[in-house]
Design brief:
The complex is a heterodimer. Chain A has strands spanning 5-7, 10-13, 19-24, 31-38, 42-50, 53-57, 64-68, 74-78, 87-94, 102-103, 107-111. By secondary structure, chain A is an all-beta fold. By secondary structure, chain B is mostly beta strands. In chain B, 0% of the residues lie in helices and 50% in strands. The chains are: A mainly beta, B mainly beta.
């Protein structure tokens, strides 16, 4: 099976812009979670989608949003970018909630 | 909220030495426990997991971890490390009640010197 794929792999944006990141889960996986990884804060949970519904949300401002499509693919959006949003954004999929999560390579976002 | 503590963020050791990484979590209920590894330039991969049963779990590449419920700990061990074990190791916890929200520790950067 193909692993979790994320596009794009790298992004450079400026403050105030918005960005959309995409994630394709492993075939058959219905749960998709997003995490932010920074040197200072480590890995932090953003949100989780299961069957097109947001099931959990982390402590991030409303500028961070996401959605999941009927084919389980997911997107996350960050509006009004700030310098502090620079991070590696990881997507993970799992066949069911509570199970092992399989991570993608991430999208490296740099905000200038 | 769940929190996960990993100590000794930077670990340097020689090949053939033994490795033990500590992980403590704060959550009173039943939890699922994981150790993930991130090799240089690669994405996070699962080393091992504990859901229930035998508290000593074995994972890939000779790693094992022991769940001690009374100590809220899930420590990772490998008896003899290799240079290829150089990586960052993350402990993670979630509550299995339909929750896919992983809480990660800050990670241990392990460098193995040949």
């Amino acid at each position: 099976k193909a692993g979790v794929t994320q596009t794009p792999r790298y992004l450079i944006k400026t403050r105030g812009q918005q960005v959309t990141l995409s994630c394709s889960p492993i075939s058959g996986h219905r749960s998709v979670s997003w995490y932010q990884q920074t040197p200072g804060q480590g890995l932090q949970f953003l949100f989780e989608y299961f069957s097109e519904t947001q099931r959990n949300k982390g402590n991030f401002p409303g500028r961070f949003s996401g959605r999941q499509f009927s084919n389980s693919r997911s997107e996350m959006n960050v509006s009004t970018l700030e310098l502090g949003d620079s991070a590696l954004y990881l997507c993970a999929s799992s066949p069911r909630q509570g199970d092992e999560q399989f991570f993608g390579p991430g999208t490296r976002l740099t905000v200038l | 909220a769940q929190s996960v503590s990993q100590h000794n963020h930077h670990v340097i050791l020689s090949e053939a030495a033994s490795l033990e990484l500590g992980c403590n979590y704060s959550y009173g209920g039943t939890v699922n426990l994981f150790w993930y590894v991130q090799y240089p330039g690669q994405h996070l991969q699962l080393l091992l997991k504990y859901f229930s049963g035998d508290p000593l779990v074995k994972g890939i590449k000779g790693f094992e971890a022991e769940f001690i419920k009374s100590k809220f700990s899930f420590n990772l061990r490998k008896p003899s490390v290799q240079w290829s074990d150089t990586a960052e190791y993350f402990c993670a916890v979630n509550a299995p009640n339909g929750n896919n929200r992983l809480a990660f520790g800050k990670g241990n950067q392990v460098v193995v010197i040949p």
